[in-house]
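Our preliminary data section would be incomplete without showing what the modeling component actually yields. Below, a chain of 263 amino acids is followed by its predicted structure, encoded as tokens that our downstream tools consume directly.
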Amino acid sequence: MPPSTDKFYSARILERHDLSDDLWIIHVDPGGEYRYRPGQYATLGVVTPEKHYERAYSIVSAPHEKLLEFFIELVPHGELTPLLHQQQVGDSMTLRKSGKGRFTLDVSSGRSNHFLIGTVTGVSPYVSYARSLYDDWKAGRFDGARKLYVLEGASRSWELGYSGEFEQMEKEVPWLKYIPTISRPWEDKDWKGETGRVDDVIRKYASIWNLTPENTKVYLCGHPGMIENVTGIARRAGWPQDAIQSEAFFVIRDEAEVTGAAG
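Predicted structure:
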């Protein structure tokens, strides 16, 4: 039985861009009015004869954009991503009718700096933050008082799905800094940038950017191992727990499934 139209839209893929065999970006017509805040997630699903499979995926796009955008990683033995990986332009999926989640930009803590640390698809909510602020900046609704410092890690440079966008935006605005780092430079011979895991370089860039527990909120999004390690580093450096906000992208079960949000 198809899902109820009271709770779900039938969303359709309008664009697809494959970065590698297991990473791709899709732009989706939600199929109706869709409300969300930057950093929230959408619940996507595929109906099969056996079951309606659903998972949460962080939204890359910003609320002012007409299409929803998602950055997805294939988990070969996961329940949903192999089904999504088969879908092409024109195919449909289910979409719950509104965004959810609390991984939004904290504007109430009094800290003006936001240290955004992510791995691969974990950069998704940070793209949404940046696009939304950029739109407000261009329209005169944002004065630059909040500053974003993005540290993104991946194994190889082609897994950095939005590095070009961040680098271009960094040239245009005073409130964004971006550093990508790769952990397998021997597999990416042309790479000239930072190397190492984000865990390895977080102290370096916190120092370069003068990010302290007093002036900075820390955000962690991606693999739970990274989140655990960097949380420990931040706590030892003096950040209180309430100044660290995290969202894991793996639900650890017998077979891990990448999701866009832990919920």
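Confidence is low (pLDDT under 50) at residues 252-263. The CA atoms of residues 150 and 176 lie 8 Å apart. Preliminary results of this kind motivate Aim 1 of the renewal.
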